[in-house]
Amino acid sequence: MEVIALIDKIRKHDGDLPKKVKANKGLEEYAGKTPDELRNMLKVMLTARRVEREEKLLLRKGYNRFFIGCGGKELIDVALASNLRNNDPFLGYYRNKAFDIFRGSTLKDKMLEAIGDPKSRNKGQQIPAHPGYPDMSIIPQASPTGGHALEAAGIAEAIGHPTPISQNSEHPGGCWPEDAITLCAIGEGSTSESEFGRAVFYSAFYKTKSIFAIYNCGWAISVSVEEQFPEGDPTTPFEGYQRFGLKIMQIDGTDVKESLAKAKEAEEYVRSGKGPVLMNIRVTREGSHSGSDDQSFYMDPVEQDWHTYNDCVLKSCNTFIDDGIITPDEIGQMWDDIDKEVSIESKIAVDGFEPKTSDFIADLVYTYDFEECQKTWKKYRDSTDVKDRAAKYKEYHEKGYFASPEIPEKVGPMTMRFGINYTLFDLFGMTTDIITFGEDVADFSGHMIEEKEKQAKLKGKGGVFLLTKNLQREFGNDRSFNSPLDEAGILARAAGHIYQGRRPMPEIQFLDYMSPAYQVLKDRICTTYQRSGGLYKMPMTIRTTYGGYKQGAGAFWHSEGNLGTWMNIPSLLIAVPSNAYDAAGLLKTAWACDDPVLFCESVALYNRRDWEGVPIETNLPDIDELIPFGKARVYNEENNDVGIITFGATVHMARKAAELVAEKGIGVRIVDLRTVKPIDEEAIIQTAKDCGKVIVITEERFAGGSAATIASIITGGDGLFHLEAPVKLVTAIDARVAYGVDGDNACLPTVDKIVTAIDEIHSNY
């Protein structure tokens, strides 16, 4: 029902009016709410409906470009909000206007958001109804459905996680108290997404303090809930979890007394620690899905009438009138006051609108600044948990973790695997704010976690490539632990830990298997800073292996080097070390950075001491030496016949190729980019200027890969005018890497292919 018609109907309320309740005491039939509290709830509901109307008007006038309504959901919004604390984290969706307003979102907030003004809290980055308010514990929303549920599960898990959060954290001691309830509101259609199923699983598995409120209006745009779940009930797939503490509730979200009673019951159950709650809440849809939809095209007129006459605002008004809580005249006056306030704020917003610039938007994508990383590192180092590092490494040696009792930088040249393992020990010893988890990262799992005597007789796992070896033994299962085989869950849960105040380092075993986590990474983690208008950061380092050259064992599913896919994601930084020194320095920078970092480790380099005689082992940098992102390492800088630009394993192939062609009198300079985002454009262009002939080598395929990006940096800048030949690319063929001893050589760059490329570009131009 249009709100103007609804208010007119209330003004004309017929029948005798009951005597108005005078005492402002808790009313049992309203779950203990006082008349003043009930009237405030009604005011919030009417305000949300009036804001929705204003958004429609602004859309018609051309000031608003997107509209999506909250009509029919206001009652359950205020019922839940009134039974939770303002510091209980809330992850909602685009129907929760009344919840936001109840918690303190202002009309100014809503009007600025409606027109996308850069003065709004999210600085005009989000479409309307996607707010984020840290001071109200409202996590910024995103449109891809379902993903926020998994993030909510991560936050609830992080709140209950026993590892303490330091005073150095952005949220000293933790953002929320241990008894905080995490509320996730979601539409019934979105519960079909796999992320929602995993979210409920994790909440039941870890028995977290979580409420999942399903706002079930029966329609996901034009798809009926009957086509999604048995009996049209999205809770049916989870009935088995009731054995493990999950409480499933059926609620009439159009009835004020039932909504308040059930919301209170849910809050008390979850706060007590008995388990999470899953609510199936019947609500109405007082308008089509969004401004581009018309439900009269597909909804039965009888059902449309049901939605209209069961409008929660209309029913609540009538119930309050009948119980003497408020009179029709008072409701009419309340509406008139709200109407006036909204009109004023809308005009102020429109009159003061400021367009956003490209620079303004670009400044909200990355936080990275090397000096800030160094400051963060120093802050943690100055209050490190390990006071005597030398003594600690002697202790580690005595425990059998390392062959040498020396601190890492004094051990001498080592492989990249040991360099990363040492660096992880330094990080974990420095602060409890770092945790790591993923598939197989722990030394032991299951009952073996507590079997200390048995552990002493076993080597332990510590990752499939042993990079996290002994972290669990030394720092405990709460800081290094295994996860289910669920890449999306790993990253979303890590995001939850960030919101609580940690700086996690989740591991995805192979880049090949990052795909299930693509939406969580691209649409949630990597949009957090921008979509919140800079209010929320996402300091996450995702360690993963990438690339081929596994002596024939990698094949399709363990040889992906497709960094171009990930380079195309705004806010994601990408590091690709090629030796122990760089791995250690870059990993520390990544951890101290406030942006998400994809830290790609070439399996082919983990245990290699040399590449066909070219040494790979290096010393480690000093503990306080961080390596800046976007700063390349250059080999043979004095050479200028041919320049090679590359990263990762192909760096050492290029070094070997350079040795071979040096016998022919060809001097090759090699640029190891070390990070491909940010990328060292200066080193790339300088190489083009100095050498005139440039080869770009990557393990990626040509289409969509980083090689073409690197080439365009040269040809799109000053380097173009110094070129003596077209930029030559040596990449993988347009195929997945085939199995067997011949697969890598057939599909990927090799030393021989690089030598051939050098000969061709040097002799033909």
How would you characterize this protein structure?
With about 775 residues, the protein is an alpha/beta fold. It folds into 3 domains: about 35-160 and about 175-360, Thiamin diphosphate (ThDP)-binding fold, Pyr/PP domains (Rossmann fold); about 370-615, Thiamin diphosphate (ThDP)-binding fold, Pyr/PP domains (Rossmann fold, 3-Layer(aba) Sandwich), CATH 3.40.50; about 635-765, Rossmann fold (3-Layer(aba) Sandwich), CATH 3.40.50. About 40% of the residues lie in helices and about 10% in strands. α2 (about 35-60) packs antiparallel against α10 (about 310-320), α3 (about 75-85) runs parallel beside α8 and α13 (about 370-380) packs across α22 (about 580-590). The protein is elongated.
Give the full name of the CATH homologous superfamily of the largest domain.
Answer: Thiamin diphosphate (ThDP)-binding fold, Pyr/PP domains
The biggest beta sheet, please? 5 strands, parallel
Helix content, binned percent: 25-40%
Q: What is the number of E strands?
A: 21
State the secondary-structure class: alpha/beta
**CATH arch. level architecture of the largest domain:** 3-Layer(aba) Sandwich
In terms of per-residue confidence, which ranges show pLDDT below 50 for 5 or more consecutive residues? none
CATH top level of the largest domain?
Answer: Alpha Beta
User: How is the CATH topology of the largest domain named?
Assistant: Rossmann fold
Globally, the shape reads: elongated
The mean pLDDT is 95
**How many independent structural domains?**
3
What radius of gyration results from the CA coordinates?
A: 30 Å
**How much of the polypeptide forms β-strand, as a percent range?**
5-15%
| Helix segment tally | 28
Strands in their spatial order, largest beta sheet:
1-2-3-7-6
Rounded to the nearest angstrom, the distance between the terminal CA atoms is 75 Å
